From TrEMBL:
Keyword vocabulary terms for this entry: Amino-acid biosynthesis, Branched-chain amino acid biosynthesis, Transferase
Catalytic activity: 2 pyruvate + H(+) = (2S)-2-acetolactate + CO2
Domain of life: Bacteria
Lineage: Bacteria, Pseudomonadati, Campylobacterota, Epsilonproteobacteria, Campylobacterales
Protein name: Acetolactate synthase small subunit
SUPFAM superfamilies cross-referenced by the UniProt entry: ACT-like (SSF55021)
Origin species: Campylobacter concisus
Known EC number: 2.2.1.6
Pathway annotation from the record: Amino-acid biosynthesis; L-isoleucine biosynthesis; L-isoleucine from 2-oxobutanoate: step 1/4; Amino-acid biosynthesis; L-valine biosynthesis; L-valine from pyruvate: step 1/4
Length: 155
């Protein structure tokens, strides 16, 4: 049975760390569903937010291997996280936008950009709610969808 797991990894902010972590996953045949990396302000560290899936044995192995990497400072794989994901959706201006405002409001969304051909909307919410938003926005015939990885913070 495949379980979705969110892992926060604090690493020393140095060259090659991301390659070593992604290589750890690839070398063992583990999949990364989403990966987001950003430096932690006023420190020499970066936070990697990793969403992966597998059975309990695989997930335990992933965490053990992450602990073994030299630049790893801390691995947080349990506890409470605030997790958000973002999506951008490009919709042709020729569509009937009745109901779009209500959908955007329901999913913490806004119109971020327009030009003579398209509008671009953005939503930021929980991963499962982003999935539901993308289903509900299909009626507007989007021509492009970009989905960002999860960002997480332990609380």
């Amino acid at each position: 049975m495949s379980i979705r797991r969110t892992i926060s990894v604090i690493v020393l902010n140095e060259h090659g760390v991301l390659a070593r972590i992604s290589g750890l996953f690839a070398g063992r045949g583990y999949n990364i569903d989403t990966l987001t990396v950003a430096p932690i302000p006023e420190s020499n560290f970066s936070r990697l937010s990793i969403v992966t899936s597998g059975d309990e044995r695989v997930l335990e192995q992933i965490v053990k291997q992450l602990h073994k990497l030299i630049p790893t400072y801390k691995v947080i794989e349990s506890g409470e996280f605030v997790e958000k994901e973002m999506a951008l959706v490009k919709i042709p201006l020729g569509e009937n936008f009745a109901g779009l405002e209500a959908i955007l409001k329901s999913y913490n969304g806004i119109v971020t950009n327009t030009n003579e051909n398209y509008i671009v909307v953005m939503v930021a919410d929980d991963a499962s709610r982003i999935e539901n938003f993308l289903k509900s926005i299909k009626k507007f015939n989007p021509v492009d969808v970009v989905r960002g990885g999860s960002v997480i913070m332990d609380i």
